[in-house]
Amino acid sequence: MIKENLEQINLDIPKHVTLVAVSKTKPHSMVLEAYEAGQRVFGENKAQAIEERFAHFNNHPDIEWHFIGHLQRNKVKQIISGVSFIHSIDSERLLLEVNKRAEQANRVVSCLLQFHIAKEDTKFGFSLEEATEMINRQPIDSLPNVKICGVMGMATFTENEAVIRSEFQSLRAIFEELKQTVFAEKEYFKHVSMGMSNDFKIAIEEGSTMVRIGSSIFGSRS
Ligand SMILES: *Cc1c(COP(=O)(O)O)cnc(C)c1O
Predict the structure, then answer these.
(1) Which of 6, 20, 22, 198 has most ligand 1 atoms within 8 Å of its beta carbon, as the pocket-test mutant?
(2) Could you tell me which residues come within 8 angstroms of residue 171 by beta carbon, excluding any fewer than 6 positions away?
(3) Ligand 1 mean position to 116 CA, how many Å?
(4) Within 6 Å (CB) of ligand 1, which residues are found?
(5) Residue 123 has pLDDT above 80, yes or no
(6) Mean pLDDT across the stretch 50-61?
(7) How confident is the model at residue 119, as a pLDDT?
(8) Whether pLDDT at 110 is above 90
(9) How far is the CA of 124 from the centre of ligand 1 (A)?
């Protein structure tokens, strides 16, 4: 089923958009099945879970592991050596910690700044003002071990398409603003991570370059 699901989803994803297969809570065997169907980029939202994947898939160096959930600073150290991309930088202290641990591991880690675009107040993330202030305090060139490649956000959990669309438009606008200001001339600042199983088509229409899809590939989670 996973292979068929991936084939179906890939029909709806243009070439320039990266599919992050969100395997959280699912067994390693399902990750392997997706891998054998050609999928190489996977997302996890818990430090312990992603560490278990690193160990289990140690002999699959072509897998890219993306961290997509809220990351506590005291967990950065344990994931830094295996993670390719952190989508969820939601505070200055976390960004500094990732830079520090990446330096110790002799790596440069790709990151996205997470923005709060939803109505719900449970979701983490910056406002445009907060992110701009942070970059003014911590100029990007002063953090050589993180590469801030763009922005990430989650829409409100709702059936209302107009709400979802307008939130994705607001994230795209934040991206464009940052790209013209604090990230001017940073050609690697090019990603907008938005869209999940239920809203990825809208997200792509509104300029997503990375979609994070779990249940439509692996089935619903209990
Ligand atoms: C779980 C999760 C997803 C995937 O959600 P689905 O609805 O299963 O596609 C995407 N992004 C984040 C941050 C998640 O935690």
Answers:
(1) 22
(2) 115, 117, 151, 153, 192, 194, 206
(3) 15
(4) 22, 24, 45, 68-69, 154, 196-198, 212-216
(5) no
(6) 98
(7) 85
(8) yes
(9) 14
Element (H, E) at 5: helix 2-11
Q: Is the pLDDT of residue 215 over 70?
A: yes
Q: With bands split at pLDDT 50, 70 and 90, how would you rate the model's confidence at 125?
A: very high
Q: Return the ligand 1 atom nearest residue 200 CA.
A: 9
Say if residues 33 and 3 touch (Cβ distance below 8 Å). Answer: yes
Q: Ligand 1 pocket test: which of 114, 196, 200, 220 has the largest number of ligand atoms within 8 Å of its C-beta? A: 196
Q: Among candidates 3, 1, 26, 45, which has minimal Cα distance to 221?
A: 26
Q: Which helix (H) or strand (E) holds 205?
A: helix 200-205
Residue 99 structure tokens = 């830079």
Instruction: For residue 122, name the pLDDT band (cuts at 50, 70, 90).
Output: low
Distance CA 34, CA 142 (A): 39
Nearest 5 degrees, angle CA 6-CA 12-CA 17? 90
CA atoms within 13 A on the CB side of 57: 27
